[in-house]
Amino acid sequence: MSENHVVLTKEERERLEEELNDLKTVKRPAVALEIQEARSHGDLSENAEYTEAKNEEARINGRILDIEQILRVAELADETKLQSDVVGVGSVVRVYDMEYQEEDEYTIVGFTGADPMQMKISNESPIGAALMGAKAGDVVTADTPAGPVKLKVLSVGRASV
């Protein structure tokens, strides 16, 4: 995550806000009760329930801090200003992989919405970053961990919301 420039779609922001609310109002109070219950069992040095509950508390608090930081620095992708012919967060991009000679269709999302199995790629991923700002007819090269990937942009549209 690039802390200086995080872009989220409206749906990503809403999902993070829901998760944050659930962590604060449901999960954190529940783990506090687990800790209290485990403490009542006596010696904490040999209490696996207590150790596990404290680890879960730390995981929940860490996730809360992560989400709060993301929401603090995130920019909301303004889908009303999204140019239909230029790739941006919220775009659906049909590309031609010049090496494998096949077409793919990607939806460009903010980093929290990435789901490669659903062909949703982050604007910060190598392919997503290479496609940002491209138009139909452009050829871009993405520097991926597996090596450079050359893609021709066939079309750019908007994701259906």
UniProtKB/TrEMBL annotation:
Domain Transcription elongation factor GreA/GreB N-terminal: 7-75
Lineage: Bacteria, Bacillati, Bacillota, Clostridia, Candidatus Alectryocaccomicrobium
Keyword annotations: Coiled coil, DNA-binding, Elongation factor, Protein biosynthesis, Transcription, Transcription regulation
Native source organism of the sequence: Candidatus Alectryocaccomicrobium excrementavium
The protein's name in its UniProt record: Transcription elongation factor GreA
Annotated Pfam families: GreA_GreB (PF01272), GreA_GreB_N (PF03449)
Matches recorded under NCBIfam families: greA, PRK00226.1-4
Domain of life, per lineage: Bacteria
Record Gene3D superfamilies: Transcription elongation factor, GreA/GreB, C-terminal domain, Transcription elongation factor, GreA/GreB, N-terminal domain
Similarity comment: Belongs to the GreA/GreB family.
Keyword Signal attached: no
Function of the molecule: Necessary for efficient RNA polymerase transcription elongation past template-encoded arresting sites. The arresting sites in DNA have the property of trapping a certain fraction of elongating RNA polymerases that pass through, resulting in locked ternary complexes. Cleavage of the nascent transcript by cleavage factors such as GreA or GreB allows the resumption of elongation from the new 3'terminus. GreA releases sequences of 2 to 3 nucleotides.
Residues of the Transcription elongation factor GreA/GreB C-terminal domain: 83-156
The keyword Transmembrane belongs to this UniProt entry's keyword annotation: no
GO biological process: DNA-templated transcription elongation; regulation of DNA-templated transcription elongation
Listed GO MF terms: DNA binding; RNA polymerase binding; translation elongation factor activity
Coiled coil: none
